[in-house]
Write a structure and sequence with these properties.
The protein has 5 helices and no strands. The protein has helices spanning about 1-25, 30-50, 70-90, 90-110, 125-140. The protein starts with a helix and ends with a helix. About 10% of the residues are buried.
């Protein structure tokens, strides 16, 4: 239940953040906006770390696969692509396509066990769910 609540909260926050970032870009430019977003996220994260225990900050470098340290780089491009998609398509349509892409890629990650995830067998119900999601997007746009 807690996982469901956090997933719903994540979706809510991502939608609002995408619109906020797009509005900031209206008065600035893409990379200034992206820098501001990442900088404020850093400040909030460091502040929370400072007040919640201060474990070794450099322990992130103990991760076995150093490729995983590029999550922040991916985050910068996520911010870029969300802003561009929302400014070009509007919040609802952009979010539907973003969620579709997340679902498909997540299913592939699970199906093949990429990035150290547990490999989960392919199920037709997942493919049907993706097809229904695509149908929903098409209906929404008509």
């Amino acid at each position: 239940m807690v996982g469901i609540l956090f997933a719903l909260l994540a979706g809510l926050l991502m939608s609002v953040q995408g619109v906020f970032n797009t509005r900031v870009m209206d008065s600035s430019n893409m990379w200034a906006t992206n820098s501001w977003v990442q900088f404020t996220a850093f400040i909030v994260s460091i502040s929370i770390w400072f007040f919640t225990g201060r474990e070794n900050l450099l322990s992130v470098f103990n991760v076995e696969n150093k490729l995983y340290l590029f999550g922040g780089v991916i985050g910068a491009f996520i911010t870029f692509t969300v802003i561009k998609s929302i400014s070009g398509l509007g919040p609802a349509y952009a979010t539907m396509l973003i969620l579709l892409a997340q679902l498909v890629v997540s299913c592939l990650i699970e199906a093949f066990g990429f990035f150290g995830t547990e490999k989960i067998c392919f199920e037709w119900s997942k493919l049907i769910g993706v097809v229904l999601m695509i149908a929903g997007i098409i209906i929404f746009k008509k």
